[in-house]
Amino acid sequence: MSQQRETSNGTDSTASSTAGAQESATSSWNSDDFECPVCLQSSLYATRLPCGHVFCFLCIKGVAVHDRRCPMCRSAIPPHFLDHPKMIDGHQYNCARRGTMDGYQWYYEGLNGWWQYDDRTSRAIEASFQRDDKVCVLHISGQEYAIDLEQMMQARLSDPMRRRRIKRDLVTIPNKGVAGLSIQDHPSSANNTNA
């Protein structure tokens, strides 16, 4: 479902509303109500920038690596925003360790360890794996990626040299977080040996 952003005069109603109105509206927002303008899907781990625009956390993280500005209104993204993002509906504590029926999950390798794919991406990879597909192509964080299930590698289609290892492993293994969201600062991280 797409969110309504413009008023009758064409201005961005979210960015022009007061901070108090934004805070009160946050409590009734559901991330399924927002289409991420980067990946064009319902927002996963919905994150609200200070300007009021909402994105998937991983999508805005991917954008911020190249340009520290909101892709919608060009407002600056504060330097430490990605370390302490403003999540909608308390999603910062909802990095659930969901797995397949047999207790497995899909992971990708980052610089400092393994990260769990978001639930939607993991389900898509698992479906391809169960069909014995050799490769599946997925839209992740505004980019198209080829997931090679034989070589267990992920590569960006626009830049095949940007590759990372992937794996299917038990949902209980220590990991860095989910879809770019670190579990280090979460209350549940006391049970995570990699936190």
From TrEMBL:
Q: Which CDD domains match?
A: RING-HC_RNF146 (cd16546)
Which top EC class is named for this enzyme in its record? transferase
Domain (RING-type) spans: 36-74
The residues covered by the WWE domain are 91-168
Question: Which reactions are catalysed by this chain?
Answer: S-ubiquitinyl-[E2 ubiquitin-conjugating enzyme]-L-cysteine + [acceptor protein]-L-lysine = [E2 ubiquitin-conjugating enzyme]-L-cysteine + N(6)-ubiquitinyl-[acceptor protein]-L-lysine
Question: One of this protein's GO BP terms?
Answer: Wnt signaling pathway
- Give the UniProt keywords, A-Z: Cytoplasm, Metal-binding, Transferase, Ubl conjugation pathway, Wnt signaling pathway, Zinc, Zinc-finger
GO molecular-function term, one example from the UniProt record: poly-ADP-D-ribose binding
Q: Which PROSITE patterns match?
A: WWE, ZF_RING_1, ZF_RING_2
Gene Ontology cellular-component annotations = cytosol; nucleus
Give the record's PTM text. Answer: Ubiquitinated; autoubiquitinated.
Question: Know anything about its domains from the record?
Answer: The WWE domain mediates non-covalent poly(ADP-ribose)-binding.
Q: State the protein's name.
A: E3 ubiquitin-protein ligase
Natural source organism = Drosophila lebanonensis (Fruit fly)
Q: What does the organism's lineage look like at the top?
A: Eukaryota, Metazoa, Ecdysozoa, Arthropoda, Hexapoda
Protein's gene: LOC115626088
